[in-house]
Amino acid sequence: MSVPTITLNSGHEIPQLGFGVFKVDPEQTERIVTDALEAGYRHIDTAAIYGNEAGVGAAIEKSGIPRDELFITTKLWNSDQGTQSAFDAIDLSLEKLGLEYVDLYLIHWPTAQRDLYLESWLALEQIAADGKSRSIGVSNFQVPHLEKVLAGGSVVPAVNQIELHPAFQQRPIREFAAGHGIHIEAWGPLGQGKYDLFGETALTAAAEAHGKSPAQVAIRWHLQNGIIVFPKSNSAERIAQNFDVFDFELSADELAAIDALDAGKRVGANPDEVN
């Protein structure tokens, strides 16, 4: 099954559906990522702070999948922000992953009170120039953080990875990003189980109409909105089910019904408060 790709402003293509390993037990990561690769995923999203880059790397190595068929993302953690520490952090991540480069390197949070994110962004520009990451971007950046990076840097972030799900649709950030050629990635696309997303009529009705699950409908809503999305699961069955979303299409009315669920309901941390 072919996953659609999006061309980033760096010129590189990213699979629109990926697999995230947030809160995946490091001891289980190799098995779970192997399940994802066997299900068809080729886009894996990890981070230094997750503590499971080595497990991701082990699964990649054992898979035998050619490197150029994979898209691997990792992230610079808050305590590693700054010029030299960012250089050291990417080298450590590459060592753990067993890779010569990642496809995407992100600043994990702006940590605005520390005010090192612009300096860190300039370091990421050098990391990209050195070939250690093919594309660079940010995560959890609000519009003012993006504005500062755009004003002070010479490279436009390829992506901004943010909390995004039907109850928290982040339209102002999405509109700003679209105006500057920045693609949006959604973390927590299914609401992290922190509210009854799957009980919403907009999802259950569409699921019944298409013979799919509410989770598959939610993933499809992201895809049809042009959002890069990576649901996570520890279950091989659920991992495969989340990948099985390319044989149906939501109607305009179904999309509009899910759009109407936006309630400004953040379930994760507020980027302005993470430092």
Question: CATH superfamily, called what?
Answer: NADP-dependent oxidoreductase domain
Number of domains: 1
Secondary structure: helix percent: 25-40%
What order do the strands of the largest sheet run in, or round the barrel if closed? 3-4-5-6-7-8-9-10
Number of strand elements = 10
H/E element sequence: EEEHEHEHEHEHEHEHHEHH
Largest sheet geometry: 8 strands, parallel
Large-scale geometry: globular
| CATH hierarchy, class | Alpha Beta
Q: Please, could you describe this protein's structure?
A:
The protein is an alpha/beta fold. It has a single domain (5-194, 222-248), classed as NADP-dependent oxidoreductase domain (TIM Barrel). It has helices at residues 26-39, 53-63, 83-97, 117-129, 143-152, 171-179, 201-210, 214-224, 236-243, 252-259, and strands spanning 5-7, 13-15, 19-20, 43-45, 71-76, 102-107, 133-139, 159-163, 183-187, 228-229. An eight-stranded parallel beta sheet has the order 3-4-5-6-7-8-9-10. It is globular. The model has no long low-confidence stretch (mean pLDDT 96).
Jot down its keywords.
TIM Barrel; 275 residues; two-stranded antiparallel sheet; alpha/beta; 8-stranded parallel beta sheet
Give the topology.
Layout: E1 5-7, E2 13-15, E3 19-20, H1 26-39, E4 43-45, H2 53-63, E5 71-76, H3 83-97, E6 102-107, H4 117-129, E7 133-139, H5 143-152, E8 159-163, H6 171-179, E9 183-187, H7 201-210, H8 214-224, E10 228-229, H9 236-243, H10 252-259
Parallel strand pairs: 3-4, 4-5, 5-6, 6-7, 7-8, 8-9, 9-10
Antiparallel strand pairs: 1-2
Helix pairs in contact: 1-2, 1-9, 2-3, 3-4, 4-5, 7-8
